[in-house]
Amino acid sequence: MRMGKVEVSLVVVVGASMTALAVFGVLPKDPVPPAIAKATLWTPAPLAPPRIAETNSVRPPFAQADVAFEVRPLPLLPVSLADTSLPSIEPPLTTWSREIASGETLDAVLADAGLGASDRAEIALAIGAEYDLRRLRPGHVITVVSRPDGTPRRVELAVEDGVRIEAAFGEQLATRVLEPDPEWVTFAGEAVIESTIFAALDTADIPARFAVDLAQMLGGTVDFRRDLAGGETMRLLWREARDGTQRIGQPELAFAALDLGGSVYEIVWPDDRSGRAAIYVDGEVLRVFAQPVEGARLSSVFGRRTHPVYGNVRMHTGVDFAAARGTPVQATAPGRVSFIGRRGGYGRVVEIAHGSDTLTRYAHLSAVPDGLTQGQRVMAGEMIGRVGATGTATGPNLHYEVRVDGRPTDPLSNDRLAEAAEREADDTAALRRLAEARSLLAERLASELVQTTTERL
User: Fold this and answer.
1) Which domains does the chain have, with CATH numbers?
2) Closest by alpha carbon to 392, among 367, 363, 429, 413?
3) Which GO terms fall under biological process for this protein (predicted)?
């Protein structure tokens, strides 16, 4: 019954459709070509079922249908914005540098560099706060770094021993002292005297300035003009402070040996803070100098020398001990303080009278103890001042003099040292220092020989 109704409905629908096509003229009047009719009957072939590969893998268990999955939003990744600001570009700087000539002032050199009066005054005040400008001497170097408009960016004063005083211009002028951290290197050398000690050292490429030290240290014992016949051998050991390949300051003698007239003269400058420089002849103590500054280095001896400040040759009436500013200075013998004050180029001075004819002078002091007064009696080893650089001095040191009847005498050959030599002769420490110096000299000479031979090969 139901199927009958469906068939009737289809007939009604098809009839209505044909009527509509005929009315609107859409129904084609020509028969359909056979090829098109055949194409309309094409249907795709049925797909084959997929093949499932056999594997030994373990399949994870399927989630239960009643398990609800929680959907969460993905977190946002952090985004870093690139720095698109342009780098600051330093303007080009110009550097001007030269050594200070004899008699020049800092202001004159800065004017030569093209700096204005106000800048020069400001720089002088800044550098002068760290360094006494009266100590400027030939060989010091001024370096000026300027901006394109000519204003200073940095000014540097290089003085002795590698020390530099720098004034930097920023929001405000800042000054600092730059000191090198040197490495001490030991050298050894051997020279044969054919004419003079100076020529022998120069030929052997050993600092020729040691000729003055040797001649003056042995001056009271050896007459070099009479005793040198030619062919004598010298062996020296010295130390140099170095900052990389640059030498800082002057080299320092540590040991010297001279074969002369069948005897061997040796000098030891100990670095064990014993405070005693000793002269030996054939292994026995000849003289010992008891220093007024414990552990200081004997930097200049008695006699004629080229003055380190004025540059001319003049008599050096005492001996100098290089030491740090503020190092205690001690009386070398008992006596009475005869003078406390200033004496021209000596700076601050303390003088002690030892009897009626002998006087010791301690110069360039930075300070004197408050309780020390003129007329006061002091004992040997008692502190009477501190090392300084007052007066005409190139750096902190003690200038020590011995005067007999008002005339300066060599402290190294003064009679008062005879007793010290006798005491030192019984001290095995003196002989031990000599043995150590000899051993180090032999070791360094052998090393220098191996190095020289290797370089030649």
Assistant:
1) 94-178 (3.10.450.350), 181-269+427-457 (3.10.450.350), 293-414 (2.70.70.10)
2) 363
3) proteolysis
